[in-house]
Amino acid sequence: MKQLIEAIVLPLVDYPQEVRIETDENANRIVYKLFVHPEDRGKVIGKQGRVAKAIRTIVYSAAGSHHQKKTYVDILD
User: Fold this and answer.
1) What global pTM score does this model have?
2) Which of 3.30.420.10, 3.30.300.20, 3.30.565.10, 3.30.420.40 would CATH assign to domain 2-76?
C-alpha cells in the first residue's frame, strides 16, 4: 500500500526526496501517515481537499481487497 501511495504522491510534489510514509497498525485498523515538505502540502491536499479525497478513495478501494481492517490515510507535517 505504501508503494501505491508513493506512486500517486511523488509526481505531485516538488520535493520527492522528502516524502515519507509511516504505518501504524492495530488489531482492527491501519493508518498510513504521509509526510511531505511544507510547500508541497497544498498540492497533496488540493483545492477543498479534492486531491486528498481522491488519494484516500484509491487507497481505501485497494486496501479493501487486501486487508480486513479499516484503512486510514493521514497527511501530516
Assistant:
1) 0.87
2) 3.30.300.20
**What pLDDT is stored for residue 40 in this prediction?**
94
Residues in CB range of 28: below 8 A, 6 or more apart: 69, 70
pLDDT tens, 58-72? 999 888 777 678 899
Q: Is 34 exposed, middle or buried (0-12, 13-18, 19+ CB in 10 A)?
A: buried
- Rg of the chain, C-alpha, whole Å: 12
